[in-house]
Design goal:
Elements (H helix, E strand, L loop, with lengths): L10 H24 L3 H32 L6 H25 L5 H29 L2 H16 L4
Helix pairs in contact: 1-2, 1-4, 1-5, 2-3, 2-4, 2-5, 3-4
The structure holds fe (ii) ion (FE2) (2 copies).
Length: about 160
């Protein structure tokens, strides 16, 4: 991995690095599936799914509520982001089903990549900067430590 994790990065920066990490993991899964190495593709997908679910959980439980609790902020963006998480999970289930049947996954993963690209862009431009601006210092530090551990957990 060519990601650089340092101790002074904000939660937003670390979540952005985690987006890149998840993209890389998905690329590796596609390579395994293209080579019909199904056991490795399934093993890697299980890790990918666990990590992206944890990423989504952190956003829905810690990032979005800060935005939603601030009366000056419109609620529309987090409604859209939560709906996109539902759509992302549906595509994750479709990839998992294809892998279980040992069917090609490239069309489904292309859809997932398109969903993630549009979704992550909005988070990185709007939601994460708002979190950094609005959340208390202790909340920001706690989330940064959690995301840093998530990133370091898969450094092997
Ligand atoms: Fe998200
Ligand atoms: Fe995200």
């Amino acid at each position: 991995m060519n990601l650089t994790i340092t101790n002074d990065q904000s939660a937003g920066m670390l979540l952005e690095l985690h987006h890149q990490r998840l993209d890389d993991m998905l690329d590796d899964i596609e390579l395994c599936a293209d080579a019909e190495n199904w056991s490795e593709a399934k093993r890697r997908f299980a890790g990918f799914r666990r990590d992206i679910e944890e990423h989504i959980r952190l956003e829905e439980e810690l990032i979005f509520p800060i935005f939603e609790a601030n009366a000056a902020m419109p609620h529309g963006p987090t409604v859209v982001m939560r709906a996109e998480h539902v759509a992302i999970r549906q595509t994750l289930a479709a990839v998992e089903a294809a892998l279980a049947d040992e069917r090609p996954i490239s069309r489904t993963t292309a859809e997932l990549e398109a969903q993630l690209a549009a979704h992550n862009f909005k988070e990185e431009r709007v939601l994460y900067p708002a979190f950094e601006r609005l959340a208390a210092a202790a909340t920001r530090a706690a989330l940064a430590a959690t995301v840093e551990a998530l990133l370091r957990g898969r450094d092997e």
